[in-house]
Write a structure and sequence with these properties.
Helices cover about 60% and strands about 10% of the residues. It is mainly alpha-helical.
Length: about 150
């Protein structure tokens, strides 16, 4: 069995561990190798990563146990991203809001919630394109008159 499969099964059985704690359980492999593989699991969407204080904790995405702490933490994280995106939209920061909507989409599990996030993101991107303003300054050599 490959290291990636072993780590996926281990994270599924032991949710909420940091990459350092996971690496300590696999003493036969180097710490860097285990941490790199855990990051790959996250990149390939086999594991979810939730920021807890200043550390990331990893949870299996495809595990059969949906009533663990990961589900509650991710829902809390999704609602945090959604509220942050709404605040940014109210301030007119549409590109940053679109990034928050994309992250909320990535973490959400329900189909209707994901669809809502994508619609809001598209709306922010449309508004961001329209927010270009004309400038009142000119480059050197392009002076267009005035009283002198």
């Amino acid at each position: 069995m490959s290291l990636m499969k072993k780590l996926e099964a281990f994270i599924s059985d032991n949710p909420g561990l940091t990459s350092r704690e996971i690496a300590e359980a696999f003493a036969s492999h180097s710490v860097e190798s285990v941490q790199r593989t855990v990051c790959r699991l996250h990149d390939y969407n086999f594991a979810a990563r939730v920021l807890d204080g200043n550390q990331y904790r990893y949870y299996a995405i495809n595990s059969g146990d949906r009533d663990n702490g990961r589900n509650r933490s991710c829902n809390k994280t999704v609602s945090a991203y959604i509220s942050q995106a709404k605040k940014l939209q109210d301030r007119g920061m549409y590109r940053r809001a679109a990034t928050c909507w994309l992250e909320a989409f990535r973490l959400s599990e329900g189909g209707s919630e994901r669809e809502h996030c994508l619609k809001q993101r598209q709306r922010c991107l449309r508004n961001a394109k329209q927010s270009t303003s004309q400038c009142d300054w000119y480059l050197a050599g392009k002076f267009n008159g005035g009283d002198q």
